[in-house]
């Protein structure tokens, strides 16, 4: 320390000298400031802390992303539930419509089966009755007579056999000779024509029945899907 000695300020000079004298008596004990951890260990700690910071940042970002995905999934789940409810209603409506349509088709199919059964029974019936009815149609008057009708009174003459009183009775019951009956060939032709016509009718009924079956199966596949196939 440099003390300033000047005659202009004597007191200040003395105070300065006293301070300088005291300062000379001060003893400083310096302590070396050293780290207890080596540089390598300190660098390793810094690296570990940096890794921990990155891990925490990644964890925070993952939590935010998962939270956002959770909200999106909840929204999608709610949307799917609404769509499922709508589809269930549509399936119920379609099922009701399909059941009604299937019942109507089954009723129509049953009617066609009954009609086909009657046609088959008619085809299997003996056709000899047609020949008899054809012959009887060529006879004069009616073949069968009502037993309740009374016979006309007869007039007995001395010179001949009894004769009916009305000429119309003779005309009504006149028998036709066998030569005027239709031949067997004509009867066979009529029977063959009737058989062909019946077969055509049966074929058309079978075709209609097949079409209705296909229609029923297509409706079942349409409304019930793979359940019908299995």
TrEMBL record:
Q: Carries keyword Translocase?
A: no
GO cellular component labels: cytoplasm; microtubule associated complex
Has keyword Magnesium? Answer: no
Which residue windows does the record flag with biased composition (Acidic residues)?
148-160
> Which family does this protein fall into?
Belongs to the TRAFAC class myosin-kinesin ATPase superfamily. Kinesin family.
Q: What is the lineage of its organism?
A: Eukaryota, Fungi, Dikarya, Ascomycota, Pezizomycotina
GO BP: any one term:
spindle elongation
Q: Which residues form the Kinesin motor domain?
A: 1-26
Entry protein name: Putative Kinesin-related protein 1
Please name the GO terms that the record assigns under molecular function: ATP binding; microtubule binding; microtubule motor activity
User: Per its UniProt record, what InterPro entries does this chain match?
Assistant: Kinesin-like_fam (IPR027640), Kinesin_motor_dom (IPR001752), Kinesin_motor_dom_sf (IPR036961), P-loop_NTPase (IPR027417)
Residues covered by region (Disordered): 131-184
Q: Which superkingdom, per the lineage?
A: Eukaryota
Name the species this protein comes from: Glarea lozoyensis (strain ATCC 74030 / MF5533)
Query: Where does the UniProt annotation locate this protein?
Result: Cytoplasm
Please give the chief subcellular localization of this protein.
cytoplasm
Q: Which residues form a coiled coil?
A: 63-122
* UniProt entry keywords in alphabetical sequence: ATP-binding, Coiled coil, Cytoplasm, Nucleotide-binding
